Amino acid sequence: MYRLFFKRFLDILVSVLVLVLTAPILVVVIGILSFQNKGAVFFFQERPGFKQKAFQIIKLKTMTDAKDSDGKLLPDNQRITKAGKIIRRLSIDELPQLLNVLKGDMSLIGPRPLLFKYMPLYSEEQLRRHEVRPGITGWAQVNGRNSISWTQKFDFDIYYVDHLSFVLDVKILWLTFIKVVRTEGVNQSIDRPMQPFNGKN
How do strand 107-109 and strand 135-137 relate by DSSP bridges? Predict the structure, then answer.
């Protein structure tokens, strides 16, 4: 019952409530980013969702589009802006994803939606992370976020798929709040963000 109906009801209720409560913060942050990024406030990217269906994830734009001499984007930690560091540390950049939740593309809680380029690298077991809607936060995020290996993250994702429940979701929401307050596990190290998945790490 929870998986089929109540979880979606909870997603909508909490998303609306959080958007209303954080609206003043979002207005200020959007104003800062609009000035800093010369009007470019939001970041859109196609991600695989429930049953691998594509959707456009929405985030606040906290990085520049700086590229190297070969025309490739520089690493995240070299492109993130000063304001972006603070916004990401506080996870404010994730708030627009509440619109994805309201649209039904995402859930508040579930495996994080990753990049399509990783799909061919997944094992059959890892592909099971798409059996539920992707989430803004999840079991992997509260158990290390970007400070753990990809293999560990996928193991946590599959655990969530197999044990999804109201009690587990409440636990994840509470632990997410604690993680955000403490700004834990954002990167693998102080100067190195999470490295791309290569099918092994």
Answer: parallel
Question: Which residue shows structure tokens 């655990």?
Answer: 159
Neighbours of 175 (CB within 10 A): 15
User: Is residue 39 over pLDDT 80?
Assistant: no
Domain ranges of the chain: 2-182
Selection from 28, 52, 54 nearest residue 122 by Cα: 52
CA dist 154 → 6, 128, 135, 196 (Å) = 25, 9, 14, 14
In the chain, which ranges are E strands?
42-48, 54-60, 107-109, 135-137
pTM of the model: 0.86
pLDDT (tens digit per residue) in 128-186: 999 999 999 999 999 977 678 899 999 999 999 999 999 999 999 999 988 877 766 54
Residue 189 phi, psi (nearest 5): -155, 180
